[in-house]
Structures are given as structure tokens and as C-alpha cells.
Design brief:
alpha/beta, six-stranded parallel sheet, 14 strands
């Protein structure tokens, strides 16, 4: 099939590249000419494992191309995916400005019958709104069919998730459109769930809200565990044996971030409010997450008291490993709070430093290695659970740091490992560990 994808951000680019990989002829459209030129050279604007290699391969095999001209991108296309951003407005609702702009471009430029698929995360009712905009602005006498096809990709494993997903959701009001899209996705050999448009739009929000709820729930349990002397990881593992609950997303830490959960939970609260429903549970989930991001600062302040002049090594800046995405990253809140208290922050992340520089305060000292971040530091904080950090030899910390004190926001190490290493260790939802044979300066 000939497919057009409007938007080359995280969702659009992964969608376009993977559809080309399964044999379709795909052209991706973006209004940023500089970005398009880099894409034509095989340079991905985002870090995502395997994406750039797959992109280059499909460009060379002439299944994938890029343009900034909508008329070229829509020429003889059979399916148009809308995958532009829907950023959060000040009231928490989704900004549909870019979606509506693309709808008008489609109406003005298409010259043949086409299926318009919204891949972006949008409030319930948006597909009908876009359908009306297209119909009201059509230039040529063509038929336009509509569908909702939300994405369920995890940043850091988006390519893998595309080929190994749990399901593909197709929301449409006519059987013909559903059959065409089902055939398009057939090479992926994944379960396909077909429903109406409104339900499809809601599935995306409900899924992310539920996962965010699991995270906030286990974080609240972790805070209780600390006060009772219980181990939250044992609690989560014990819960996870129950098939009704499952173990995934029950990892205590310093809260969720990224481009989806914060934005989608706020948007769903607004959607509920729009139909006069007070979504109290989800409001609490958001509140818990906001508080969780600051709890690690409280632990550091409790341990040291005055932070003025203390050197803190921050390990990890991106909101999760295997991505350079800094949106709603816990590191932003943490570093701002530490620096406001006079701490000297040295930060290291394997990938996201360039993006971090745009969001973090002036004065952060960025390093090119884990060793540089920790050398002579009074404490270190693991913010992002990169493999590099989980695999480091913590037994060397007493030789590197001024004080071998670790605050682990992702529970990367076992109690026995830190005991053997002889370091002071504070994690989430577990007892703190102190060296038995050393005196640590305060």
C-alpha cells in the first residue's frame, strides 16, 4: 500500500519506518525542512534503539522517503496517518491546533479517495471533529474515510513493541475501512481489536491512566513500607503472583514522567470534567506522582541537613533508559530542588545531555562519564536506571567519592550488594543500609 505519515516525531517516525519495514511504500511529511533534510540523510532526530538503522535500510530500498510538501506527500496515497503532537495546554487539556491544521491540508491537497487515520493521542470526539473539518474544506470530489488507531509504544523499545505488541486497536464506523487497515497490518501478525471510533480514542487514555495508577499505587505502598520496615520489592513480587494483578508496573521509584503518562492523565481528568464527572482517583494518582518526585530530595536533606556546597552526582537525566526524552523527567524537579538549596550538581547521562541542557538550570556541571560525576562527590543519586548504572561496581565508590553515600531512586541494587560494597545506601520502600565498620562524615 502507499501510505503517508504526517509528523516525524516519536510516534510518526516509528510508525512510518516500521510500516516501510513490513513492505509498504511510505512517505513521511514534516513542515520543518531542516528536519526533513536530515531524515533524507538517514539521521534520526530522536534516540530510539534500532530505529535509525531500520530507517536507513528502508530509504536505500526505496520504500521510505521524506518531504515537507503536503501535495507531494498525499499524491496517490491510500492511507494518511496523522501523527503530530497534541501538547498539553495550561488547563491540562490537549492542544489540537496541529491536528486541525493537518486536517485542512488534507482537505485541500488530496485528489483521490483516502482513509485518514489519527495516530496521535486525542480526546474522545476528535476523529469526528477532524472528519467535519475535512468535509467542510474539501477541494476535490473525493471520499474520505476516518479511523482511530492509537499507539501503545514504549519509548526506548518502540521498534520492538511495534513488532511484538499486545494488540492493534482499530476504531472506525464502517466495515470497509476496518478491513483495509487490518490487511495493512497483517504482516505484523498481531491480535487486532476492532471497535467504534469513540471507544478506540478512550482505550488509549484508559490504558495509560491505569498504568500510571499502578505506579502511583506501588509508590504509596513503598512509603508505608519504609515506615513499617517492610520491603516494597518483596511486597510487589508477592502481589505479582496474583494473575489478576500482575507484576508489571509495580516498580517503586521516584515517579513516572515522559511524553505520555503526565499529559494523558491530565487530559483524561479534563475529558471527564467536560462531561461533569469528577475523576477523583486519577487526580490522586497525579498528586501522588508529583509528591514522589520530591521525596528523594527530602531524604537527602534529612541525611545531610544543610546542602550548601555539597557535591551531588546525578546519574541519569532522561525520564527512562534507552531514550533521550527529557519531557517530565524526574531529574528536572530533583536537580532544581537540590540547587535551590545550594548543592553543587554534577550530572551524567549516556544519551540525553544535549536535551537536558535546554531544561535544567544554569550551573549544572555535565560530565562525560559516570566516574567524572562521582569523583569526590558527597553523595550520588540514581535517577534513571540505565544498564550502565545497574552494572557498575559499587565496591569502588569508597575509593572514588568523598563520601560513599548513594540515594537510589530506582532500586537498582540488592541489600546484600550494598552491604558487601561497604556503602551507605538509601532506596525507595526499603530499609536504609549503613556500613558497619566505617564512620561517614556528615
Amino acid at each position: 500500500m502507499k501510505i503517508s505519515v504526517v509528523g516525524t516525531g516519536y510516534v510518526g517516525l516509528v510508525t512510518g519506518v516500521c510500516l516501510a519495514e513490513i513492505g509498504h511504500e511510505v512517505i513521511c511529511i514534516d513542515t520543518d525542512i531542516n528536519k526533513v533534510n536530515k531524515l533524507k540523510e538517514g539521521k534520526s532526530p530522536i534516540y530510539e534503539p534500532d530505529l535509525e538503522e531500520m530507517m536507513i535500510k528502508n530509504i536505500e530500498e526505496r520504500r521510505l522517503s521524506f518531504t515537507n510538501v503536503h501535495e507531494i506527500g498525499f499524491d496517490k496515497t491510500e492511507v494518511i496517518f496523522i501523527a503530530v503532537g497534541t501538547p498539553q495546554l495550561s488547563d491540562g487539556s490537549a492542544n489540537l491546533e496541529y491536528i486541525e491544521s493537518v486536517a485542512k491540508q488534507i482537505a485541500q491537497k488530496i485528489k483521490n479517495d483516502v482513509i485518514v487515520v489519527i495516530k496521535s493521542t486525542v480526546p474522545v470526539g476528535t476523529n469526528y471533529r477532524v472528519q467535519k473539518i475535512i468535509q467542510d474544506n474539501l477541494v476535490h470530489n473525493v471520499k474520505v474515510f476516518s479511523a482511530s488507531n492509537p499507539e501503545f509504544l514504549r519509548e526506548g523499545s518502540a521498534v520492538k513493541d511495534t513488532f511484538n505488541g499486545d494488540r492493534i486497536v482499530i476504531g472506525t464506523d464502517d466495515h470497509f475501512t476496518a478491513e483495509i487497515l487490518e490487511e495493512m497490518y497483517k504482516p505484523l501478525n498481531l491480535p487486532i481489536f476492532k471497535t467504534d471510533i469513540a471507544s478506540s480514542e478512550m482505550i488509549k487514555y484508559a490504558s495509560n491512566a491505569f498504568l500510571a495508577t499502578k505506579i502511583s499505587f506501588i509508590n504509596e505502598i513503598s512509603n508505608i513500607c519504609e515506615k513499617l520496615g517492610a520491603n516494597v520489592e518483596d511486597v510487589a513480587n508477592g502481589m505479582g503472583y496474583d494473575k489478576r494483578i500482575g507484576r508489571s508496573f509495580l516498580n517503586a521509584g521516584i515517579g513516572y514522567g515522559g511524553s505520555c503518562f503526565p499529559k494523558d492523565t491530565h487530559a483524561l481528568v479534563q475529558i471527564a470534567g467536560g462531561v461533569e464527572h469528577d475523576f477523583e482517583l486519577l487526580k490522586s494518582v497525579i498528586k501522588v506522582n508529583n509528591n514522589q518526585q520530591r521525596l528523594m530530595v527530602d531524604k537527602i536533606v534529612t541525611r545531610f541537613g544543610d546542602l550548601k556546597g555539597k557535591v551531588i552526582g546525578i546519574l541519569g537525566l532522561a525520564f527512562k533508559p534507552n531514550t533521550d526524552d527529557m519531557r517530565e523527567a524526574a531529574s528536572i524537579v530533583l536537580i532544581k530542588e537540590l540547587m535551590s538549596r545550594g548543592a553543587i550538581v554534577r550530572a551524567y547521562d549516556p544519551i540525553s545531555t544535549k536535551n537536558a541542557e535546554k531544561l535544567l538550570p544554569m550551573g549544572v556541571k555535565y560530565t562525560f562519564s559516570l566516574f567524572e560525576a562521582l569523583k569526590g562527590a558527597d553523595a550520588t543519586v540514581i535517577v534513571t536506571e540505565w544498564d550502565e548504572f545497574k552494572q557498575m561496581n559499587i565496591g569502588e565508590l569508597p575509593l572514588i567519592m568523598n563520601q560513599p553515600i548513594m540515594f537510589d531512586g530506582r532500586n537498582c541494587f540488592s541489600e546484600q550488594a550494598v552491604i558487601d560494597a561497604g556503602i551507605e545506601y538509601h532506596s525507595v520502600g526499603r530499609k536504609s543500609v549503613y556500613p558497619s565498620n566505617s564512620l561517614i562524615n556528615s
